[in-house]
Amino acid sequence: NPANNEFLVVNQFAITENNQSKRPDVLLFVNGIPLVVIELKNPTDGNATVLSAFKQIETYKEIIPSLFAYNAICVISDGHDAKAGSLSAGLTRFMTWKSSDGEKDASKFTPQLETLIKGMLNKETLLDLVRNFIVFEKTKKEDPKTGITQIETVKKLAAYHQYYAVNKAITSTLEAASEDGDRKGGVVWHTQGSGKSLSMVFYTGKLVLRLDNPTVVVITDRNDLDEQLFGTFASAKQLLRQEPVQATSREHLKELLKVASGGIVFTTIQKFLPTDGGNIYDQLSDRKNIVVIADEAHRTQYGFEAEVRDVVDSKSKEVLGQRIAYGFAKYLRDALPYATYIGFTGTPIEK
Q1: Tell me, what's the pLDDT at 276?
Q2: pTM for this structure?
Q3: Which residues pair with 77 in a beta bridge?
């Protein structure tokens, strides 16, 4: 309940550390904890840019590092343009918050700072971001001069499109998974390079809390994608509140789904093909608190209707006869008939 907290905005708050004093422009405190640092540059000064604001934050990190022990968000602005990023983000990772309500992008004539304050720094959104939309990832960084590899922890904060998309997906999933819901969570379409994997992590983390610990099954259609996505989820286990597990075989998959609740299970779609050449896959679970996330859904979630296909000899390529077959989507629903399904894709589905 956001109203149960104390919110305070302080201008020119003096901080002294190691006999050096600094006054950040604006600090946002929640219950006395400085969660947001805002550095503003004078819009009438020709030399004032978001870059100079970013450099000022970097200076604060050097001189008064204790300010950033609890920091969730850094905001930089020249009065019109405004960007937000995490403590470890470089300038290129600072993002504009483009909508104040999640329904439509703000007008180009509205100062970005105004949109960011209304959309990102309102009480509900700020607390939601702090709780559900920040993850830590470890990355390897090699020094080109010395060849020494260091492991760095990177703090990642959701961009505005991830925040609004995930919250809409959560609302849709809760509706679909309700007693009289249709089990269709919907489709989230991301353009390439816009953080689809992290959106799936944020979605899963929030879903675990909102749906009373469901079992989440994440499905990919290639082993390398399974490994990549599993790595992203594994590094976010603090947010997910559990360790994800990869199913190594059909039998292992069945074991993992026998639990009454909880668990994040990774598997490839190929494990849902009937082994006996038949047209029905074994039912793995009749539970309703399972949510299936299909990655690259445009490639695999087809084939509810029967099709007649040729049976071809692998050596001679001669057509030996015909058989009735279905697509992966049908077999998946044979296995998990009462689960709720949501698709993520990087391909424009309307095309």
Answers
A1: 65
A2: 0.89
A3: 40, 82
Going by C-alpha positions, the residue among 206, 205, 258, 261 that lies closest to residue 236 is: 205
Q: Which two tokens stand for residue 141?
A: 């960084």
Nearest 5°: the CA angle 179, 184, 190 is: 140
pLDDT at 348: 65
Ranges in the chain, pLDDT < 50: none
Q: Distance between the two ends of the chain, CA-based, in angstroms?
A: 42
Q: How far apart are CA 128 and CA 193, in angstroms?
A: 24
Torsion, Cα of 201, 204, 190, 123 (10° steps): -90
CA distances from 30 to 7, 35, 52, 218 (A): 5, 7, 27, 35
Residue 74 pairs in a beta bridge with: 37, 85
**Closest-CA residue to 43 (of 75, 78, 76):** 78
Residue 111 C-alpha from the chain's centroid:
27
DSSP-based three-state secondary structure for 135: strand
Question: Which tokens in the block code for residue 22?
Answer: 């600094």
Contact 26, 38 (CB under 8 A): yes
pLDDT of residue 147: 86
Please tell me the predicted confidence (pLDDT) of residue 326.
65
Cα 250 versus chain centre, distance: 27
Query: Token pair for residue 204?
Result: 């899963």
**H runs (alpha helix) in 102-186:** 112-119, 123-132, 160-176
Q: Which helix (H) or strand (E) holds 240?
A: helix 237-240
The Cα–Cα gap between 238 and 163 comes to: 18
Q: Of 280, 273, 282, 279, nearest to 324 (Cα)?
A: 279
Q: Answer yes or no: are the C-beta atoms of 31 and 83 closer than 8 Å.
A: no
According to DSSP, the residues that pair with 341 across neighbouring strands are: 184, 292
pLDDT at 330: 85
Q: Which two tokens stand for residue 214?
A: 């469901």
Q: Are 203 and 169 in contact (CB under 8 A)?
A: yes
Q: What is the pLDDT of residue 318?
A: 83
Q: How far apart are CA 6 and CA 79, in angstroms?
A: 27
